Amino acid sequence: MYNLARELLFKLSPETSHELSIDLIGAAGRLGLAGRLTKAPSSLPVTVMGLQFANPVGLAAGLDKNGDAIDGFAQLGFGFVEIGTVTPRPQPGNPKPRLFRLPEAEAIINRMGFNNHGVDHLLARVQAAKYRGVLGINIGKNFDTPVERAVDDYLICLDKVYAHASYVTVNVSSPNTPGLRSLQFGDSLKQLLDALHKRQNELALSHGRRVPLAIKIAPDMTDEETVQVATALLETGMDAVIATNTTLSREGVESLAFANEAGGLSGAPVRDKSTHTVSVLAGELGGRLPIIAAGGITEGRHAAEKIAAGASLVQIYSGFIYKGPALIREAVDAIAAARR
């Protein structure tokens, strides 16, 4: 059934089919019908960051930027749902076209540029949703906020989403907002994380609960840089790391149509880079900080490989586009089988 739907959707432009899919999944969720589109995954509860997840396979940020289809995605069987990236103010993102399929490689290139309706719109959608499972909210900075003042945007978003999120992801690794990735390094990273941790403690006191903070990083760092990031995360009291965002590399897709388009590459070609990053992080963190793995999961066994590399949870995005909701169940089953 999904193969037929994908064939029809792939006749449309990538962004049009994306928007239509979100509308359809959102409508199915509001009607309570999305769960009928696929067989539910097996129960595989896991506790990470002090949160109870129905299963370790989640929706990665970027697919539902504005929280318009939370109930629909949850009903498809995801163990957790992450929405965003959201910014303090609405912004249109980069000029179109900005989303490209590379079906031969099960890959996608995007340079969306944090297009979203702003944090207030997202919170209205969260409050309208019936879902009560683990909800992550991914936050970023507006494109016209200078990198030197990026912390202001992150704190605005953190203040607003704190009461509504199970955990908050800080996106410092999108390649499509100028200067953003510089926040992953050295003093810039330390200052950002220190400010976030301080505000997290203040909000925990005022709200009576502690909402974990996860930092999402890129796959394009050297091993030494990844180790430095891991050290900074430990020193600043972060709660998790998400590895990884999209890559600027075009290794493995050089000859394909659209390979020269600017933007981040996701899907199968980023799998090995992302898994390697997970391994490096796991070696440095030694279980002191949980890792959420994302990048290139297009089959169930790829999810199990991420867990074997040191991840506690996994997320899918491009694999969902190419394989549909059956991939959720397949990934849960593969992780369960690997544990036996």
Automatic annotation (TrEMBL):
Its EC number(s): 1.3.5.2
Domain of life: Bacteria
Active site feature: 174
Chief site of localization: membrane
Sequence positions that bind substrate: 65, 110-114, 171, 176, 245-246
Domain called Dihydroorotate dehydrogenase catalytic: residue spans: 44-335
Binding site for FMN: 61-65, 85, 138, 171, 216, 244, 267, 296, 317-318
Protein name, entry field: Dihydroorotate dehydrogenase (quinone)
